């Protein structure tokens, strides 16, 4: 089992399949696709995801910041995940996941981009908090925190 770092960074993942009303992610995905299409139409070649990343970063005038995450970085993060995590029910309906605590996620069926998301998590669209150690579901994040007390997470 991997070693969990003592520092946890707040993370938000928004499922952004095209044409499912995700607003900003759909717009960014569309802009990237248009830029790639234009690049290829003008004679450029994009054979790999890294080619696309490098082409996008060379463009001038974009307000979008792109980050390349290497296979090694992903694999080192994978090593931190325990092999005994429980499944989260209803994953096909989940469109956003927020986490700022080890072994705890809060998810919702409708993505939220409000400024209150910094409250970890915001109360919009009925978020559900899940303790991945034993898959106890809570609809109120405060219930999870009061249940956890001062216990260590892993």
Can you give keywords for this protein?
154 residues; alpha+beta; 2 domains; 5-stranded antiparallel beta sheet; 4 helices; 14% strand; disordered N terminus; disordered C terminus
List the helices and strands and how they pair.
Layout lengths: L10 E4 L9 H18 L7 H10 L12 H8 L17 E6 L2 E5 L19 E4 L4 E3 L2 H8 L6
Antiparallel strand pairs: 1-2, 2-3, 3-4, 4-5
Textual characterization of the structure:
The protein has 154 residues and is α+β, with helices and mostly antiparallel strands. The chain has two domains: 11-16 and 85-148, no CATH class; 24-74, no CATH class. The protein is 29% helix and 14% strand. It has four helices and five strands, in the order βαααββββα. It has a five-stranded antiparallel sheet with strand order 1-2-3-4-5, covered by helices on one side. A hairpin with a 4-residue loop joins β4 (128-131) and β5. The protein is globular and about 55 Å long. Residues 1-5 and 135-154 have low confidence and may be disordered.
- The neighbouring-strand order within the major sheet is 1-2-3-4-5
- The portion of residues forming beta strands comes to 5-15%
Q: Class by helix and strand content?
A: alpha+beta
Fraction of residues in helix: 25-40%
Rg over CA atoms: 19 Å
- Please count the beta strands (DSSP E, at least 2 residues each): 5
Q: Supply the number of helical segments.
A: 4
Low-confidence stretches: 1-5, 135-154
Shape: globular
Query: What is the terminal separation in angstroms?
Result: 11 Å
Mean pLDDT across all residues, rounded?
Answer: 75
Q: How many structural domains in the coordinates?
A: 2
């Amino acid at each position: 089992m991997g070693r969990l770092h003592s520092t946890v960074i707040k993370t938000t993942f928004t499922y952004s399949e095209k044409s499912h009303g995700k607003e900003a992610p759909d717009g960014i995905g569309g802009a990237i696709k248009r830029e790639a299409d234009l690049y290829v139409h003008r004679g450029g070649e994009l054979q790999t995801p890294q080619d696309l990343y490098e082409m996008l970063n060379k463009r001038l005038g974009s307000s979008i910041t792109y980050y390349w995450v290497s296979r090694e970085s992903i694999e080192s993060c994978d090593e931190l995940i325990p092999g005994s995590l429980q499944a989260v029910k209803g994953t096909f309906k989940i469109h956003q996941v927020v986490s700022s605590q080890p072994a705890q996620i809060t998810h919702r069926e409708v993505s939220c981009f409000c400024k209150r998301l910094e409250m970890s998590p915001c109360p919009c669209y009925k978020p559900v908090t899940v303790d991945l150690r034993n898959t106890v579901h809570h609809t109120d994040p405060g219930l999870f925190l009061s249940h956890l007390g001062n216990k260590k997470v892993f």
